[in-house]
């Protein structure tokens, strides 16, 4: 048993004191887990565009000061009373989409959105309404129920899943968001069928993962749409068949017209992986009349809204969306980790950059340059 059990741990964390400011890596006190809580020593965390979105101040739920990060993996340090799903020493991935198995959502069989702790999670506190983090004598908020930009974090027991220790944490952390989101969007939410034509708008970590899922389901054409020409090679590396840069189309030709022409009437499935509401409209309108489905994955800024002519829906196109790809973390993530170990799921290929916790602001800068798919932060370096 670790000699930290039951005690407050002082460690380093990257604190976002205010929107739009760089993170500050400094000491934070992490209180022991209460009943049905788990304290995790985070080894590695990815940096997702949603972290940058919330830090920018565009997230309507964003509140500060906060410890961001939601793509983390590590080892359970200690557990609170009543925790049965994980134990100290387990290798785990934090889950920003929890799975209680008991609530109306979990029992519906129709969604992965668990409702049990969503209200407190959205307010940046643990289910009992308080925080486990303190810095400079002030309580610091949790983020997405995970707060992985810290050497130690505390999460609800329903927000963590044990995975095989054979998977290195610098890889398994990426299954905590980006890869699972895109892969699940294609295979679980859309259930792309063999031979179907797919367009993926935005070839970042999420979009490339949609491609990976579409390839798994034996899609026909997989068309990448991205404003950055360098994303053509990335898309092809993951199995895309075509690439279109929407800024380079002949004058008067819209991206939806181009995709409809390329697919004999429109795509069977399109995916927005940009968070741009104009792109979301184009993605919907590029769908085939009668059955095409467009999946919204990207997260848009506060105040942004989507629109299209209702006729687009009247004529059979379907607009839907998903969080975490529709994947149920506790039920389904362990097998994705096994798929990675068996060579059936690409993960290593997404890692373009690495940083220490002290270099986390550089990770945020690198994310903007278009050449970064994922930066993995080693929280102990
Ligand atoms: N629903 C969910 O559960 C989740 C949602 N997300 C969200 O998904 C989105 C994608 O995340 P991620 O892959 O990490 O982001 P990235 O920024 O890495 O990828 C987005 C890609 O879209 C490109 N792009 C930007 N504008 C356009 C445009 N107008 N048309 C076509 N392509 C465009 C970008 O190009 P460039 O590089 O030149 O900017 C980039 O290549 C984000 O909004 C993120 O917040 C993430 C995880 C989970
Ligand atoms: N808080 C925002 C919405 C942010 C958002 O949509 N988050 C996604 C995950 S994005 C991961 O990188 C999500 O899980 N949404 C479902 C949920 O219940 O939060 C806002 O208020 O608009
Ligand atoms: Zn994310
Ligand atoms: Zn639930």
UniProtKB/TrEMBL annotation:
Domain of life (superkingdom): Eukaryota
Signal peptide: none
Gene3D superfamilies for the chain: Medium-chain alcohol dehydrogenases, catalytic domain, NAD(P)-binding Rossmann-like Domain
Known cofactor(s): Zn(2+)
Gene Ontology cellular component annotations, sorted alphabetically: cytosol
Keyword field: Metal-binding, NAD, Oxidoreductase, Zinc
Catalytic activity: S-(hydroxymethyl)glutathione + NADP(+) = S-formylglutathione + NADPH + H(+); a primary alcohol + NAD(+) = an aldehyde + NADH + H(+); S-nitrosoglutathione + NADH + H(+) = S-(hydroxysulfenamide)glutathione + NAD(+); a secondary alcohol + NAD(+) = a ketone + NADH + H(+)
PROSITE patterns in the cross-refs: ADH_ZINC (PS00059)
MF terms (GO), sorted A to Z: alcohol dehydrogenase (NAD+) activity; hydroxymethylfurfural reductase (NADH) activity; S-(hydroxymethyl)glutathione dehydrogenase (NAD+) activity; S-(hydroxymethyl)glutathione dehydrogenase (NADP+) activity; S-nitrosoglutathione reductase (NADH) activity; zinc ion binding
Protein EC: 1.1.1.284
PANTHER family registered for this protein in UniProt: ALCOHOL DEHYDROGENASE, ALCOHOL DEHYDROGENASE CLASS-3
Similarity comment: family membership: Belongs to the zinc-containing alcohol dehydrogenase family. Class-III subfamily.
Protein name listed in UniProt: S-(hydroxymethyl)glutathione dehydrogenase
